[in-house]
Amino acid sequence: MDSIRQAARDDGRYAVEAYHFLLSGLDQAVEMTGRSEAESPDRHVSGQELVEALRVVALNTYGPLAKEVWNSWGIQSTRDWGEIVFVLIHLELFSRQESDTVEDFDRVFDLDEGLLQAWEPTLPQEDDLFGRGSQGD
User: Fold this and answer.
1) How many angstroms separate the CA atoms of 103 and 133, rounded?
2) What number of other Cβ atoms are within 10 A of residue 18's Cβ?
3) Would you list the DSSP string of 4-40?
4) Does residue 136 register a pLDDT over 90?
């Protein structure tokens, strides 16, 4: 993890939290694409798949504040995630396929549409409102 912190400091464009979030999102992307059981290199995910997983994790974690959180880390567009990925590739912390480019992350979705407008609050089931679960107390 120290190498991630150092990468963030050396690059200077994005908060270290963005780097850590990307790492957790990478695991989610591998799971979302059904590649979690595959052996390398079959675990490879595309830039678009990674960004979509980051969007899902952000909505689940930060809800309607997801865009604000990303902005506070320096993330202004989906391309920024590609910039971080390629910093990590340059440092040989990530690997890439020859066809991978930073442009794969361009305009995957608009942050307003993909984070602000896409967030939908969910309420607990009626039985769970008062912590009763489904036991019918």
Assistant:
1) 47
2) 22
3) HHHHHHHH-SS-HHHHHHHHHHHHHHHHHTT-TTSPT
4) no
